[in-house]
Design a protein that fits this description.
Oligomer: single chain
CATH class of the largest domain: Alpha Beta
CATH topology of the largest domain: Leucine-rich repeat, LRR (right-handed beta-alpha superhelix)
Largest sheet: 13 strands, parallel
Structural class: alpha/beta
CATH architecture of the largest domain: Alpha-Beta Horseshoe
Distance between the termini: 48 Å
Radius of gyration: 36 Å
Shape: globular
Helix content: 25-40%
Amino acid sequence: MLQRECGWRERRGAPGGRERRPLCMGLLLSRPAALLKSRKEARLRAPAPRPGLADPYCRGPRSCCGGFVPCPAPLGETESEEEEEGASGEPCAAYAEMPLAGGKRKCNSTNNTNGGDDPGSLLSSKLPCLSPAPVDGVGPTGDGHVAAATVPAEAANINRLPSSILLKVLSYLSLMERCLAASLVCRLWRELCSDPELWRRLDLSGRQKVTDEVLAHVTSLSHGVTRVCVADCRAVSDAGVALMARSCPALLCFSATRCKQLTDGAVGSLARHCPALRSLNLSNLDAITDDALRQLGASCSDLREVHLGQCYLLTDAGITALARGCPLLTKIYLLENHLVTNSSVQCLAECCPRLQYVGLMGCSVTSRGVRHLARLGELVTLDLRHVSELDGETVMALVRSCSRLTTLNLCLNRGIDDRCVEVIAKEGRNIKELYLVSCSITDQALLVIGRFSASIETVDVGWCQEITDHGAIEISRTSRSLAYLGLMRCDKVSEDTVEELVQRYPRIVYSTMLQDCKRTLARAYQLGWKPSGSAGSAP
């Protein structure tokens, strides 16, 4: 037994009475091999300990095996013989100078008969508890028990994995986690964190200390940078974007949301130096003009996705130039672009037949312009929130023509009524999400959705004052696919009815003010949150 105490103790049963002997680790080194073998056999016959718990057979220091491998008791002694009668309570000098698990320090005990060799390595060769057992040692013993074993320490080291696997693991960490945590673990990890493979996708969003110099430096660490996000980086200017564009000719995606300091110069640099650009997010850049879109249309013909929401200076001229120069567009998002009218929608429908996502919320577009979208056979998502003078006939024509449509957002359009919803439920075979917030619909709309639609999973009818308990009950009872029902501020739907529906149809998520608060509170408790005014935390 490895003793932490230094002193003398008496050994009962010794010839001539009691024998006093020093308690030192060096004494274990002179134990007969036969006794060691007998103790090892006894250990193998013992049941294997449960991982993660202290082994009841381990009487050595916890750090020698961590409780995962049974450690033998002192040879020839029973548990009752381990009671000390004269221990001083002070650590043995030899034991204190030796690390608990391996190491290079020497044991200076006079009982070390091995000439000052490293006791950790010597004990590892004699006591199985001090060295991990080989994996192939696992197996049944003669009495039906299973021998305990662990994976060798050198084999369990994560650094023994191939570098390609370690790089894949590190790629799931954020940029800050790699720089401030992983790179400080060891030299190998520091070298791996500097690998150009990990610097091809850079997310610098929200970092206010990212300047032009920082952006130019991090983008020069790899010759194959494909994604850069500088959203909310207010210290990045047109010059910094230009330096980045020169060092990233293979750039595919760039996002600069809410970087209001950027102008047409930044977009022009991207267009000149990054012709392979495929995704561009310039939302809320109110200094961008039509000239930026002309440069994109002239140089970036492979552009597939573009976000231009709240770019208030854009007009039909810029959208038209972009549509004609980028025929492969699949997604365009416009939000409150008040200078964009029906002519832009018509040009997009004619020049970009592959469009799958179109967002026109708050634009100066009417039903006349929306009708042009009916020629987009691959349209999947259509956002028509708050479109001026949008009528039900236009929406019904779109649903009949665009058979692949899966998401339809018609919020804030008073021209959408029960008849329009009925056509959507019957003709929209692939529609899964339908948003009807603040539309002119009644319970009849919910009834037809539940009766005729087998695909709609999400329905939001918040702020529709004509929705009552009857409509919520019927759509819950008849719909086979419904998974979410939004009833926010539907004042004619009582909370008692919603509580009953929650209990009766657990597969459906009901959204009301009270239900959302309950889910938020339950989630907070799961994450360990406790009310500050609780009795346990009160002073």
